[in-house]
Amino acid sequence: MALSRGGRTTPVDSAMVRGLFAALLLERGQYVTKERLVESLWDDPPRSALDNLRGCVWRLRRMLASVDPVVADRLTTIAGARGGYALAVCPGQVDVLRFAELAEEASVRLRTGDIAEAGAGFASALELWRGPAGQGCAASRVLQARFRALEQLQLTVRERLVHVKLLQGASAEVIPELRGLVGTAPYRETSWALLMRACYLAGDLAGALTTWRHATEALAEEFGLDPSDSFRDLHASILNRDEDGVRNSVLQA
Predict the structure, then answer these.
(1) CA torsion 64→67→68→73, rounded to 10°?
(2) Looking at 62-187, which runs of residues are DSSP E strands?
(3) 5 with 54: CB under 8 angstroms?
């Protein structure tokens, strides 16, 4: 995690400050109580948690001021018994927020059938991905769950971009990307389905059927999951040599 301004980059080198910064950024400028921030940073908060939190806020404010005093002024304190903090930033100033915004816009275009624009949007979103999300941050289970959700979104965007490429006629060239996806996240049926489609459309029927076998074994033995109806339908389309059915298989993601 780092702050950038005018070509100058300042790393956030404290795990606690990184965690605080991430927790505030993910709230998109909304007020966050001290209690919620403590819950985001510690599973078992120490007695000094509130004092530690104030110290982290002070350090974050100094760091922001060293990069851009205007941004530092946007870190505001709300006084009172249930006081807290808010960091007002524009989504375009935060890579991960802009990533999520572009991903949603591209998903809308995909649902409405604007394939070319959807593909461009997914590609633009992935250019902003700097993952793994939350790397080097102090984080409780609560904040870690939010980081995992971002990681899952990144996998979904990668799948949707491949889906678009398959609709546009690509096949063999996306197979390495898909092998990487199923290696990274073998529990995602969608990635397996895309790999089956890519193999079949590239003329590798045996590869598609081998992928089905590996997928069902991995999903059942490692994760206790049965194939969904749409995954079974794809398998049937491959067995029936139904190229249109394979190419236009519904994306489940």
Answers:
(1) 10
(2) 75-78, 84-87
(3) no
pTM for this model (two decimals) = 0.88
Do residues 196 and 216 make contact, with C-beta atoms less than 8 angstroms apart? Answer: no
Q: What is the spatial distance between Cα 136 and Cα 143, in angstroms, rounded to a whole number?
A: 13
The whole-chain average pLDDT of the chain stands at 90
**Residue 84, φ and ψ in degrees, nearest 5:** -175, -150
Domains, in order of start, for the chain: 2-89 (1.10.10.10), 169-247 (1.25.40.10)
Is residue 98 within 8 Å of residue 89, measured between CB atoms? Answer: no
pLDDT band at 1 (very low <50, low <70, confident <90, very high): low
6: pLDDT strictly greater than 80: no
Highest mean predicted confidence (pLDDT) among 7-11, 73-77, 223-227, 236-240? 236-240
What phi-psi label fits residue 113: left (phi over 0), alpha (psi between -120 and 50 degrees) or beta? left
- Please count the other Cβ atoms lying within 10 Å of the Cβ belonging to residue 75: 18
The beta-strand segments (E) located in 106-252 are none
